[in-house]
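Order emerges. One example.
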Amino acid sequence: MMEWTPRGRRDPAAVSRGDWGDDDMRSRFQPDRQLTARMGLTLFLLGLLYVAFVAALIVLLKSWVLVVVIAAAMLGAQYWYSDRIAMYAMRGRLVSREEQPQLHGIVDRLCATADMPKPRLAVSDMELPNAFATGRNADHAVLCVTTGLQRRLEPEELEGVLAHELSHVAHRDVAVITIASFLGVIAGLIVRFAFYSQMFGRRDQNTAVVFLGVMGVSALVYALSFVLIRALSRYRELAADRAAALLTGRPSALASALTRLESDIARIPTKDLRTAQAFNAFYFIPALGAGAWVGRVFSTHPTLEQRLDQLAKISAQLGRPA
């Protein structure tokens, strides 16, 4: 059994108990400097956009207190309660070791190998085969899988998917995506608020001008944030695939899981997939894939071919069959 050392190595029992020191934020997942740089650039650009957005709303609504208070409250709520919001939306529930011994066992081994805190584990009783990680940092992360995913995958494939989701937590891109998504969310809500206030409020000329101004600014902000988040999301999925394959040493298992899930999702009724599409950016595999070239540009995930090609290259590097 491994003991505590200055480098922070931990024994599997400590991982299972959740006993962690102050230097827990580093893990043995393969670091990705490009991902870190992209996250920093995305947050910087979205920050500038956010400041401009708030300034424009203050000018239009002539009430800086109202705008700032609402924006700050919504940002705080999304940051602190993102895990609860996602769990509620996906009907996920936390599960104990007694309820899900296989799930806990796999995550215990992966966290011990990666030298990282063990997240809380949850299961969603959905037929959609998928998984996602959420939470503002490694100490408040939740990893959720659906029963449809568990039923379809072999243990080695499930391990690859879980390693993929754990790498999102280790790379901190879960928190970045959560914060980055905030701007698009608030812009969309303001568009709805402005629309309904115009429908049921006063309809004089000044009100109409303010209404059109708010709608135009919000729509522009939503579009720009949408493009920036999608670009980051596609790269972070490739980074997570790469890190998971290198950690487990079995890129072929992850490739098999991707192929199997892509095929199975294609057989699920479209109306059921559309209800889950809003959470595509957090999923292991998108509920609805992108078909045309324009669709792929705005997709949250790279294509299956891109992901399989990367895993095949990693297999070749490791000297193992793809």
Notes: The two ends are 34 Å apart (CA to CA). The chain has twelve helices and four strands. Residues 205-248 form the longest helix (44 residues). Residues 230 and 299 are 6 Å apart (CA to CA).
